[in-house]
Every structure is written in structure tokens, then in C-alpha cells.
């Protein structure tokens, strides 16, 4: 068999598979589940004695704000696993503590390779009609003297 024909056959199969994923009946499997993380974060902070409110910023992030008196303020939001919000969050955190949470771990910087790989792995699974666990990425900005943050519990919210 000539390599050109083999390549053409493989290309044709890939084209057919790609088009099959775009049929009207397959549209629903590509839609992500609604995100309940902000509600879970708010509940966790309330359990720890924080005064909680939710804010939608101009940057399309849903921030959960928690305060304990004047000395401790924290902002927590689910962010894009592709790293799109990293510069924004870093700029907002200037002079404050910054934490990222993913798969039950805490990081000082967003582990973009890991979060992006999981995002595309999950997306591929949805296209194939399979399920993969949703592992949200959280960013938390806290004032420097805020010592009562439930860091381990926040990390556990990302490892379901």
C-alpha cells in the first residue's frame, strides 16, 4: 500500500469522526455542568465566622468576599484553567497574600500546565460521552494579616 493512500485514509477517518462530533444530537455533551463552587466557598467561609457576600467584577469573575472584622479580608473566585485570569489576579493581589487551589493542593502560582491539561482532558471526555470529575481552579487573595483562612478546606473544594 502506498503511504499516500494510507495517509489519505487516516485523514478521511479523522474528518468523519470530527464531523460526527458536531452533529446536532451531540451538542449537549459539550456543555459544562453549572458551577456550584462560589456557593460552596461562601458556605465554608460562613462556617468559619466570616461575613460573606458575592461580587461580580468587571472582569467576568464571581468573587466571594469574606471579612472578619477590619483586619482580615479574603476574595476567592473560580478562575479559568487555561490561565486567562492569572495576570489579572496577580495584579489585584499586589501587596496581599495570593493562593491558588487545584486538585486538593495549594500553590503560590497557578499550575497552568496541570489545570489546562485537566480542562482539555475533561472536554475530550465530554465529547466522547464519558464523564470526568470537575476540578475547579480557585484563586484566593487575602490581606497580609489574615491568619484564620481555611486553606486546607479550600483546597478540598477543588478535589471532588
What general form does the structure show?
elongated
Helix coverage percent? 25-40%
How many E-type strands?
6
Ranges where pLDDT stays below 50 over 5 or more residues in a row are 25-34
As a percent range, the share of strand residues is 15-25%
Largest sheet: 6 strands, antiparallel
Instruction: Record the strand order, biggest sheet.
Output: 1-2-3-6-4-5
Mean pLDDT: 84
Number of separate domains: 2
- Helix and strand element order: HHEEEHEEHEH
Signal peptide: 1-22
Keywords: Signal
Walk me through this protein's architecture:
The chain is an alpha+beta fold. The protein has two domains: 1-31, no CATH class; 32-157, no CATH class. The protein has helices at residues 3-21, 37-47, 86-92, 112-127, 151-157; strands at residues 51-56, 62-68, 72-79, 97-102, 105-107, 137-142. It has a six-stranded antiparallel sheet with strand order 1-2-3-6-4-5, sandwiched between helices. It is elongated and about 75 Å long. The termini are far apart. The model is unreliable at 25-34 (pLDDT under 50). Keywords: Signal.
Amino acid at each position: 500500500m502506498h503511504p499516500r493512500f494510507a495517509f489519505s485514509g487516516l485523514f478521511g477517518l479523522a474528518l468523519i469522526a470530527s464531523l460526527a462530533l458536531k452533529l446536532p444530537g451531540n451538542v449537549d455533551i459539550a456543555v459544562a455542568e453549572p458551577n456550584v463552587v462560589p456557593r460552596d466557598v461562601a458556605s465554608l467561609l460562613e462556617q468559619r465566622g466570616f461575613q460573606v457576600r458575592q461580587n461580580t467584577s468587571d472582569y467576568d469573575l464571581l468573587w466571594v468576599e469574606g471579612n472578619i472584622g477590619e483586619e482580615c479580608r479574603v476574595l476567592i473566585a473560580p478562575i479559568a484553567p487555561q490561565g486567562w485570569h492569572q495576570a489579572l489576579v496577580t495584579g489585584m493581589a499586589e501587596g496581599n497574600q495570593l493562593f491558588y487551589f487545584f486538585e486538593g493542593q495549594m500553590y503560590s502560582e497557578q499550575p497552568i500546565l496541570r489545570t489546562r491539561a485537566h480542562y482539555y482532558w475533561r472536554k475530550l471526555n465530554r465529547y466522547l460521552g464519558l464523564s470526568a470529575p470537575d476540578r475547579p481552579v480557585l484563586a484566593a487573595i487575602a490581606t497580609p494579616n489574615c491568619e484564620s483562612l481555611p486553606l486546607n478546606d479550600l483546597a478540598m473544594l477543588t478535589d471532588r
